[in-house]
């Protein structure tokens, strides 16, 4: 009996897995599934991100759980993980791969919505802390001279940097800048969590687990969920959705570029048309001036012709007079 039990095959483990991870944790559905399935992983991750002693985390409740593997409508389904820490602080975790170039505004909307949870009649002093933590597979502020791996933002006085309130906080983990992790980030193993989320092969995961044993349960959950067809279907649906969103985004970009070109051409045509109108008006004015000048020349010519005729008549009269005088002079000489 004992021998037969010992000879039973062991439960599959990520330690035996090799090659590519079909659905890594940058897939936001897998991210949500692993953290919802493994409370120990979620607790360890929160402790690292908030620089907490794990023993200080007395309770950790996901307030928006989902039925893992159940189909959902992309338009209404939210994959953020809302957490109530120690029955007090509200934390929202999100994995975002697609850069829609609206992250500052979007994350602020999430944070404000998370903070505004006072019950009617409650004192404002009872407002619970709200913490938004985003894992981004892109750099949110590429214009910064020095990007950061793990950055935290709070409301400060812009003159003396006095903290307005410690109840309003937004943190960003840039998964593309792990090499920029500070000594403090490494002390709290945030870089190890980021490497797990970015891992694309089981070899990467196993090598990481040798350095950071806290991810062992997360790795097992990742392995088990990758083997669950219902979970795989939802991960694939998310990938298809993101591909479609990227396609739509690219199409919109191309349409905007084409529209901008057409608008520019239309403006050029309008400018050319206006130039042609000005040129036509100038030519019309010049033609009218030429017509007026031609009419004036005709009048002048007519006047000159009349004057010439009059002068010719006068000359004829003068010649006749001269002949008459010459005749009279000749008669006087003969007499």
pLDDT < 50 runs, ≥5 residues: 1-9
Strand content: 5-15%
Helical region count? 9
Described by the principal axes of the CA atoms, the overall outline is rod-shaped
From the N-terminal CA to the C-terminal CA, the straight-line distance is: 187 Å
Radius of gyration computed on alpha carbons: 45 Å
Structural class: alpha/beta
Describe the overall structure.
The protein is α/β, with parallel strands linked by helices. The chain has nine helices and six strands. It has helices spanning 2-6, 28-37, 39-50, 103-115, 183-187, 190-198, 202-211, 216-226, 229-334; strands spanning 60-62, 81-85, 89-96, 130-136, 150-154, 168-174. A six-stranded mixed sheet has the order 1-2-3-4-6-5, with helices on both faces. A hairpin with a 3-residue loop joins strand 2 and strand 3. Helix 2 packs across helix 8 and helix 2 (28-37) runs antiparallel to helix 9. It is rod-shaped and about 165 Å long. Mean pLDDT is 89; it is low at 1-9.
